[in-house]
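Q: How do we represent a protein-ligand complex in a form that can be generated token by token?
A: Start from the inputs.
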Amino acid sequence: MDVTEKRMNKKERAKERREKRHEEISRLRTIPYSDHHRWWSGETIAVVTGGNRGIGFEITRQLALHGLTVILTSRDTIEGELATKTLLEEGLKVVFHQLDIVDHQSIDLFCAWVKEKYGGIDILINNAGISYNTGSENSVECAEKVINTNYFGTKNMIKAVIPLMRSSAGGARVVMVSSRLGRLNGRRNRIADVDLRQQLEHVESLSEDIIDSTMNKFLEQVKDGSWVTGGWPQNNTDYSLSKLAVNAYTRLLARTLSEWPEGQKIYVNCCCPGWVKTAMTGWAGLTSPEEGADTPVWLALLPGQSTSGKFFAERREINF
Ligand code: NDP
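Then emit the structure tokens for the protein with NDP bound:
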């Protein structure tokens, strides 16, 4: 068998495994949660960022179908209200509020409203994100915007919302919709600097400063043009780095939150939705937004939750 044939076989086997897993997940999705596992109620408040379209819209729909009250947020009020109307017409308990995760004033207004109306939040799904490259393009023209939204914006939200998260026996939950492109040790798409990779990997010594300075160093190199030889991930560089930072921050946050007392626990995990047919991918991709929303929703609703600081795809833990 020559190299091309071997590669084809590998691809076909991977496709077969993927299709089998998708079938398995479709089956799992038909099994209703038992009363024993259903820790939430109609009073449980979930917030979804970037809920007006794509995966975020489907996450909102699926959480609401499970009977939660879901706050669909969107940076564009008209888009958000239209999306909310669609779900209200399906009989779901969905409420709209404007929220732009890179606008501190918008976040503050949102938090004040949530506190006043509901008293707190039980689940936060950090789904909002951007990418300006499709296919094999690798422009970093919008790198600052991408890192500011996907990493710094997500962090803004977490910092503002954590004080609002309600104590409960089941624990509050934060789910980050991240990407496999942000893997630290991906075979083909990783940071070349082994020391930096190790710093970002060791959760015991990981700090916000290490993550932030990695992003800032990359952005400085984008400005002076030296990023090309900087040893950064080769595929969708700015986006991959932004998600690498989200993943690292998930582990750091989980470590910090693990010290909180019983009864006040907040569990935080990240996941990859797969390659999904949305505006972000120019509607390429292998799965529907409905399937892409499955793992984030499953993670948010895990019964008997105690998992924190982990990375998931297709309802399974994967390596960072
Ligand atoms: P879409 O482009 O369809 O949706 C992205 C959503 O994020 C939109 O609602 C968008 O709002 C919102 N958004 C962007 N910037 C902000 C902001 N500053 N404040 C609030 N909302 C904002 O993409 P997807 O549904 O595919 O992506 C959802 C998430 O899934 C992203 O985090 C993405 O990185 C991740 N992901 C997607 C994959 C895929 O294959 N599609 C693969 C791996 C991860 P607006 O409509 O106003 O632009």
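The beta strands are 45-48, 69-74, 94-98, 123-126, 172-177, 266-272, 311-313, 316-318. Residues 141 and 256 are 34 Å apart (CA to CA).
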